TrEMBL record:
Phylogenetic classification of the source organism: Eukaryota, Fungi, Dikarya, Ascomycota, Pezizomycotina
Organism annotation: Cladonia borealis
Gene Ontology terms: cellular component: cytoplasm; nucleus
Compartments in which it is found: Nucleus
UniProt-listed InterPro entries: ARM-like, ARM-type_fold, Importin-beta_N, Importin_beta-like_NTR, TPR_TNPO3_IPO13_3rd
Domain Importin N-terminal residues, every copy: 39-104
Any one GO BP annotation for this protein: protein import into nucleus
Protein name: Importin N-terminal domain-containing protein
Family statement: Belongs to the importin beta family.
Length: 996
């Protein structure tokens, strides 16, 4: 039974030229969307037909512009697709036809779009490999002048191109300009990545002198008489500079001097209103991308143009907030000049003209409006000043001991730039900000980030003085209650925080600032201070925490401000972070105030709106850090009991939410309780900068938290942990937080509140199933615990390792029995076993049914997922090595290797022999290297695998296999094995896989 095709689906098949013309007119007519696809297919079919050449010629005879355009397009398509069907005689005839049509279309006043399309066809003809039409520009000029096609061979006897161009009509001149533009553009597209680039550049360059002749006349004489020709000439000049740039980059032979002589003519267009746009685009683009094209005289002339009265008028409009096209074009030309002449602008301080240019570049930072919102040019101007600053820094370093004499003047410019930026980064009033969309807010934020980078860079040039000026400015704006100016000033000081970190001399500057009314004013809730100002003040505290560690006299006012800030939702997060960093850094100075901290936190908890988990865990961690600095465990007990009491309240809330079936609140509260515990545990760890007591090994370890007065408190924590984990092991946040609580005690060598018995971790791990969320993280936590001891593990740790292995075997069996292979669980299970080698290798050997692990890990080497495959490879890499063990354990390992070694080698050989992906080869190289180094039987096992009938490749024979094996054995696990693996894999897969 055939398919019935509706009339609307049937292909259109034109029978005559009239049918084709009708379809073309229908295709370009508006409102033909339903039919356009079928019409396009029909027209494309006739274009591609052998009769397409004749069709193109016939269509150009039409009086309809759309039909004539399609005729020119058809010539273009036929040249691109069917060139090889032409012999030399046909190609010569085609060229004559195309040029004759170009003459006729120009003489008949055909539309620009038709003539340009025919020019594109001529360019495509020129780019054909035969290369018979070499002097295409001169030939076109002569033909257009004569009104008929002349033989190419007769050109040597004709007058120079420069003598003929003045006789051309404006239309003919335009056609040649369009052709020249298309030629420059298309050569770049077609051959920018060609291996024969130089060949084509040299070929096109033979036309350069003729192009210059055309442009020289058309730009000299037609500026006022025929603006259209002049504008097209400028654009053509632009395109040929682009072509010259590509040739210059590729080091092709090109006489730039010919094109350079046209630059003064193009500059004339900058004085003409109707030519200004095209000229500005030309000079801006060339300055940005090919400044080497311009001569020193060109730069001097441009600097004059950029500072004349017209330029001053445009700049005035720009500063008043006029960002129309002409104004923005001028600004971008000025910036392009700045980037190209940055060296002269910095060094030639006695050049008044360049000084004026530099001042105008500075003025671009002072336009009305907010950066990126109303003021569009300010962010672009910042890029120039960053470049200028980087040039100064490079010059400073390269000058070594003796600074350049112009550096002092350049520094003054940087100071002026920073002052202008200080004004531009100031936030508007809140009533303005609320009217902005997200793009406007992002624009100002991005600009402030650029200013921050500039200020950081400027410190190399300006030193501590710039920091002192901003600090003084901060005090001034504080006294005048200019809050948004104060915010901008504090922002600038924050930008310099890393730069002055090692400068002791800034301490007195900061003391003056922090000893002022800054924190008192910021704490005043009744003052109408913008939230942004308070937020930046909080951020400043986090940037200068080491200062407060040295000057604790400022801590009370600062911390009062931070705790007050916690009540404001917009400030709570950054304030909590500041409190955390401050308490961690200054813990020893705050131990006497721990009671006040606990009272402040209790007061905060009484606020109904205080329910941010992040803030709670940060504050509890901060208080715990202070408690850690209390010398005696007995002194820590009471404040820690109060802290744990806060957690117990959170725990009780979660239980209440559970009873009330408020699932979301239940999960949030449970997670909050665990994260607070984790934050406390981390904060109670002994700081890294604590001096090591060389005699501590002789001091009996305290059992205060395990068996003494603190034991009850530790039991409370463990009970909450087990209960929440037991109820919500399906919740990833709860599992992660539970693991973090456990991990917080692993790094501690001494007894502590969060140094739990090993059984706590063992119980949580053993309670997990394949349905437990974040099981991979839980198993990794078990590995972290096992590896916490640097010495030989004790019996408790060995028992824990055995328990973990038994559980891993249970997880493997569960996945196998239920046909529920999970790549992440599989990888994590094997990784835990691998982490036990070599410290707990004896446990692995002695665990019952350990063969399940060996079998499973071998299967994972063939798994499609990279995670279990990598884990299994690393497991076997560790297992096959030689280890110092008791004789009984050594014998057990030898038995295991005798049983599983041949199969391991068989899998490795198959993978390396072509089954593995290229990206996996380094993974499989690891166990191979360890095998050949540590196992005497490895060569025999590998040889047997290579000779096996199921070897995946037929592209390598016995000789190649034998040679590869001998090479691997000789390398004995050295790094060169990886390359040998890759080479063998390529040989097995085929040379087409030998990419870089």
């Amino acid at each position: 039974m055939g398919l019935n095709m509706s009339p609307s689906d049937a292909p259109i098949e034109p029978k005559s030229l009239e049918d084709v013309e009708r379809l073309i007119q229908q295709f370009y007519a508006p409102g033909q969307s339903q039919e356009s696809g079928r019409i396009h297919s029909a027209l494309q079919k006739v274009q591609r037909s052998p009769e397409g050449w004749q069709l193109a010629d016939a269509l150009l005879r039409s009086q309809n512009d759309n039909v004539r355009f399609f005729g020119a397009l058809t010539f273009l398509i036929k040249i691109n697709h069917d060139w090889d069907s032409l012999n030399d005689q046909d190609a010569a005839l085609l060229l004559n036809t195309l040029i004759q049509w170009l003459i006729q279309l120009c003489n008949s006043g055909a539309p620009k779009v038709v003539i340009k399309k025919l020019c594109a066809a001529l360019v495509s003809y020129y780019l054909r490999p035969s290369g018979v039409w070499k002097q295409c520009i001169r030939h076109l000029v002569l033909c257009m002048n004569d009104g008929e096609v002349i033989p190419v061979t007769s050109m040597d006897h004709r007058p120079p191109t420069s003598s003929v161009v003045p006789s051309l009509s404006p239309t003919s001149t335009l056609a040649i300009l369009w052709f020249a533009r298309s030629l420059a553009e298309e050569v770049g597209k077609a051959y920018s990545s060609s291996l024969q680039t130089h060949k084509y550049y040299n070929r096109v360059s033979t036309n350069l002198e003729d192009v210059v002749a055309v442009l020289d006349y058309s730009m000299k004489t037609t500026g006022g008489a025929n603006p259209r020709v002049f504008e097209e000439s400028v654009s053509c000049f632009h395109d040929w500079i682009g072509y010259a740039h590509r040739a210059w980059v590729d080091k092709a032979v090109l006489e730039l001097g010919l094109l350079r002589q046209l630059t003064p003519l193009a500059m004339i267009a900058l004085y003409q209103d109707d030519m200004y746009g095209a000229a500005v685009e030309l000079f801006t683009d060339v300055l940005n991308n090919f400044p080497a094209f311009f001569t020193k005289d060109d730069f001097m002339t441009l600097s004059t143009l950029l500072t004349n009265s017209k330029a001053q008028d445009i700049l005035s409009r720009l500063k008043e907030g006029d960002f129309d096209v002409e104004v923005m074009s001028f600004a971008r030309l000025l910036l392009a000049y700045g980037d190209a002449a940055v060296q002269d602008l910095a060094q030639k301080t006695d050049d008044a003209q360049l000084g004026q240019v530099l001042q105008q570049l500075l003025d671009l930072l002072s336009c009305d409006g907010y950066p990126g919102v109303e003021d569009e040019i300010c962010p672009e101007a910042m890029e120039f000043w960053i470049t200028y600053t980087e040039f100064l820094i490079d010059s400073l370093f390269s000058a070594e001991d003796q600074q350049p004499i112009w550096m002092h003047s350049a520094r003054r410019h940087i100071e002026a730039v920073i002052e202008a930026c200080w004004v531009k980064i100031q936030y508007p009033p809140e009533e303005v900000v609320v009217t902005w969309d997200s793009d406007a807010k992002t624009s100002l934020k991005t600009f402030r980030g650029d200013v921050e980078d500039l200020i950081q860079s400027s410190y190399t040039l300006l030193g501590v003085d710039i920091f002192g000026k901003f600090a003084q400015l901060a005090i001034q704006t504080l006294q005048s209650h200019a809050w948004l100016q104060l915010e901008a000033t504090l922002f600038c000081l924050n930008a310099l925080s890393d730069s002055v970190a090692d400068e002791d001399m800034v301490d007195h500057i900061l003391s003056n600032l922090f000893g002022s009314s800054l924190f008192i004013d910021m704490t005043n809730a009744t003052a109408s201070i913008p939230a942004k100002t308070r937020q930046t003040a909080v951020t400043m505290i986090t940037r200068f925490t080491t200062f407060f560690e040295r000057h604790v006299e400022h801590l009370p006012a600062m911390l009062t401000f931070l705790f007050e800030s916690l009540k404001a939702p917009a400030l709570a997060t950054v304030a909590a972070r500041a409190i955390s960093s401050t308490c961690s850094t200054c813990r020893k100075s705050l131990t006497s105030e721990v009671g006040a901290f606990l009272q402040q936190y209790a007061l905060l908890l009484s606020w109904n709106s205080f329910n941010d988990t992040y803030v709670k865990e940060k504050i509890m961690g901060a208080i715990a850090a202070i408690i850690q600095a209390i010398p005696a465990d007995e002194g820590k007990l009471a404040p820690l009991s109060m802290l744990i009491g806060f957690v117990e309240q959170e725990f009780a809330n979660s239980m209440k939410y559970k009873e009330e079936s408020q699932a979301e609140n239940y999960q949030e509260s449970a997670t909050c309780a665990l994260r607070c515990l984790a934050s406390m545990g981390k904060a109670l760890q002994k700081p890294d900068d604590v001096a090591i007591d060389l005699e501590e090994g002789n001091v009996p370890q305290s059992r205060f938290w395990r068996e003494g007065e603190g034991a009850a408190l530790q039991k409370k924590i463990i009970q909450m942990l087990k209960e929440l984990y037991g109820q919500m092991s399906w919740n990833s946040d709860v599992v992660e937080a539970s693991c973090q609580v456990l991990r917080s005690g692993y790094t501690e060598k001494d007894d502590g509140l969060f140094v739990f018995p090993l059984s706590v971790t063992v119980d949580l791990v053993m309670a997990s199933t394949t349905d437990t969320s974040r099981l991979d993280y839980l198993l990794d936590t078990a590995a972290v615990m096992l590896n916490r001891q640097s010495a030989d593990p004790d019996s408790g740790m060995r028992h824990a390792a055995s328990s973990f292995l038994i559980h891993v075997l249970d997880l493997i069996e569960s996945m196998t029995m239920n046909n529920a292979f999970d790549p992440e669980i599989a990888a994590s299970s094997i990784e835990l076993a691998q982490q036990m080698i070599p410290r707990y290798l004896h446990c692995i050997i002695r665990v019952p049914n350990i063969e399940k692990l060996f079998e499973f890990s071998l299967d994972c080497l063939n798994a499609p997922d990279i995670l279990p495959k990598r884990a299994a490879a690393y497991f076997w890499s560790a297992f096959v090595q030689k280890h110092e063990l008791p004789a009984e354990d050594t014998m057990s390992i030898e038995v295991a290797m005798k049983q599983y070694g041949p199969r391991l080698c068989h899998i490795l050989v198959r993978q390396i022999g072509g089954e593995a992906a290229r990206s996996e080869l380094d993974v499989f190289a690891e166990p191979l290297k360890r095998l050949v180094f540590a196992q005497l039987q490895a060569k025999q096992w590998l040889a047997s695998a290579l000779d096996n009938d199921d070897f995946p490749s037929k592209k390598v024979g016995p000789t190649e296999k034998r040679m590869w094996l001998q090479k691997v054995i000789n390398l004995r696990g050295a790094k060169g094995t990886n390359q040998a693996v890759k080479d063998f894999w390529i040989a097995c897969r085929g040379a087409e896989f030998a990419y870089a």
